[in-house]
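Q: Give me the 3D complex with FE2/S2 (inorganic) cluster.
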Amino acid sequence: MPLHASAGVVGQPAAPRRRSVLNWLLGLWASGVAAAVLYPILRYLVPPDVPEAATLSVTGGKASTLVPNSGRIVPFGSAPAIVIRTAQGDYRAFSAVCTHLSCTVQHRPDLQHIWCACHNGHYDLRGRNIAGPPPRPLEEYDVNVRDDELVVSKRS
Ligand code: FES
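A: Here is the predicted complex, encoded as structure tokens.
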């Protein structure tokens, strides 16, 4: 009697050990799948901490090609800027990002305004919001002419 019992006991421990190894491997595989699914989601939800572009000054093209009563959009870091030459010949520069919902503004020679086409927002040639939904003036930049090159700079 003890002989049968011990034969059954001898065969028994191998199955639970094999099962625990399989469970461990299954858990490892499930963890890998979960990590592969969750990592991109977490990277999307928590974007990397990228410092703001340190652009302080850009060239805005040839001054001589910007005729009076016209404007030009130039890249300023990751955002656009607008360089204006007034009818009197003065150069001015502003952020071209509308303060309402961030559309890019443009110069309207017929109105002598800076205009946002998205919701009919108007700014005067000093960047002040004068009509439509924009809540604030445009950020003003400095603009200088060096060797016929427009240099647009952030104000310090
Ligand atoms: S985004 Fe410019 S007026 Fe709305």
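A quick observation: The chain has two domains: 2-45, 57-154.
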